[in-house]
Design brief:
With 125 residues, the protein is an all-alpha fold. It has one domain. Helices cover 74% and strands 0% of the residues. The protein has five helices and no strands. Helix 3 packs across helix 4.
Length: 125
């Protein structure tokens, strides 16, 4: 199990760091409305962004702690990403954006989805 991080072992950490920096940068830029023509699109964007972050972070955790139990890794990943999501929302008013509890909720839901997607992806390998 968890062959993904063995196969791409040298790329997991740098790609995770680059993505996390990109995500932070994008959430620091003053908001530019993007309308794709449906309601709640920003919540989907939040979920997808944090799903990708969680997928990569979970892969990194399993690379760094090879014998970690799933329960411990789940709480480690979700707590760290939830803390980041909370800090991200709290800093947004400082850059002219809106702090929204629903954005935070969808960030965490995306993180949970990303965690389980990695497990499912690795289960099929």
């Amino acid at each position: 199990m968890f062959e993904l991080y063995h196969k791409y072992k040298n790329y997991v950490k740098p790609v995770l760091l680059i993505y996390w920096i990109l995500l932070f940068t994008l959430t620091t830029i003053p908001s530019v409305p993007m309308d794709f023509g449906f309601q709640f699109q920003d919540k989907i964007e939040h979920s997808v962004a944090f799903m990708i972050l969680s997928f990569m972070f979970t892969s990194y955790i399993y690379q760094k702690y090879e014998n970690i139990k799933k329960t411990k890794s789940f709480f480690m990943v979700i707590i760290i990403i939830a803390l980041y999501a909370a800090l991200d929302e709290l800093h947004q008013p400082l850059v002219g954006r809106i702090c929204d509890i629903w954005d935070f909720i969808f960030d965490v839901l995306g993180a949970i989805l990303g965690y389980f997607l990695l497990l499912k992806f690795e289960e099929k390998r």
